[in-house]
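[User]
Protein folding is very new to me. Any chance you could explain this protein sequence and its structure tokens? I have pasted everything here:
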Amino acid sequence: MKLFSVQQIREIENKAAELGMSHQRMMENAGSAAAGFIRKNMDIRKKRIAVLCGNGNNGGDGFVVARKLFENDGEVTVILADGLPRTETATENLIAVRERDIPIVDYAGEPGKAVLHIKTADVIVDALYGIGFHGRAEGSAGQIIETVNRLKVPVFAVDMPSGGDCNTGAVEGACIRADYTLTFIGHKTGQVIFPAAEYVGDRILCDIGLPEEAYENMDYEAILIDFETVRSYFPKRQHNTNKGDYGKALIVAGSYGMAGAAAIAARASVLSGAGLTVCALPKSIYPLVASGLYEPVYRPLAETMDGILSNYTGSMLEDELQKADACLFGPGLGRSGEIAVLLHRLIERSEKPLVIDADGINAAAENIDIWKRKKASVILTPHPGEMARLTGLTIEEVQANRLKLAGDFACEHGVTVVLKGAGTVIALPDGKRYINTTGNPGMATGGTGDMLSGMMVSFLAQGMDTEHAAVAAVYLHGLAGDMAAQRCSQHSLTPTEMLNELPGVFLKTEH
């Protein structure tokens, strides 16, 4: 599913207008479609409906909604949040509301009366700001939003919950918490990026009858990952095959005190279908990992006094990588100069795809230009803190514009970036970007990232390209988390519970 920016939506609107569909007709169709959805999903007859209208075109959409619901026996009141409309098309629709004697209350002139209508409403329609909003909802609109959010009635947002940024997903102040967001022309990036995504509720794309030609050759911001797309990445396995046909994944992970990272990544690789998983780890943790995980082949390696892989193991790792199909470097390795030396050596000499995670990313942050010397494709899997170290920004700055930041970094350095978190972003070096919607807050616990990177290197080893491996791993990892949470709750969710769900996840891809 394509996701559009506000500017791209405007371009589609303008192209539709050039093709003969007026902006007034678009507004009429949008308001009619939104009202139609509301009527279809609830009985509005004799229900008190407060339609909150701003002074822009989103308010104009709201006027159409009010008129259509009134014509279908709803007891409608229009609340003007910021006075009279500023656009000609919205003004025409306000006139149509007045002609039908629909009650109109100006919040600035009669705040008490407006609040009373809002508090006693059975249904709220939010048409305050729409997709053009950015910044902080203040003044009358901010007060109205706070009043609405204290109510327990159905709330329908027109195009975007007011107070959320439709491009970045930022929410700087009050924001309407909608049960449904009725959007037009196309889905927008800010509707699926957190924190705004928390306020959207069910996202419904309403058809407003734009000509198909209006969408031709139009750019889009990102793609929303869906199950059917991911399932198409997994061809049916043939009977006449062996482990060599499904690749060898090399995992370089673990240190003294961080044996779990190696174990989780290796088990994820095994369960995700790699023909053979080779786990290279410090010799001191080999007995612990191997005693609980029997399927991988192990390469116990020399370590420092602190239990961290020694840089003297570089030649052995290169030899292993020559025999592997893909390599994961980083989970639980620890932060030291030894790890940085190993990483740089692998990046400069490896001709096999690499997944760099956790302490591998921390080592890379010390010499960001290392990517210029890579010979193979690279996937980076930072969480926001690691992305902050890679870019020299704060975590807050990273989170404020995740899609753009990940995309810019991927293009600049020629790597694939998987920026983890709620709504994980996948950005490719060619500018293509994905946003994921699977997963839940229970996954915010140690080890889930190790599982993700283990799945990713497994898919690469099996022959997937970096784009498909990253997309599939992120989506199915989140799906495993959702399935595990349904069984054991978000509070008790662990990587082990998620790993136990992987057989069921892959069973879905095989049917």
Notes: The two ends are 22 Å apart (CA to CA). Residues 48 and 364 are 59 Å apart (CA to CA). The first helix runs from residue 6 to 18. The longest strand covers residues 276-282.
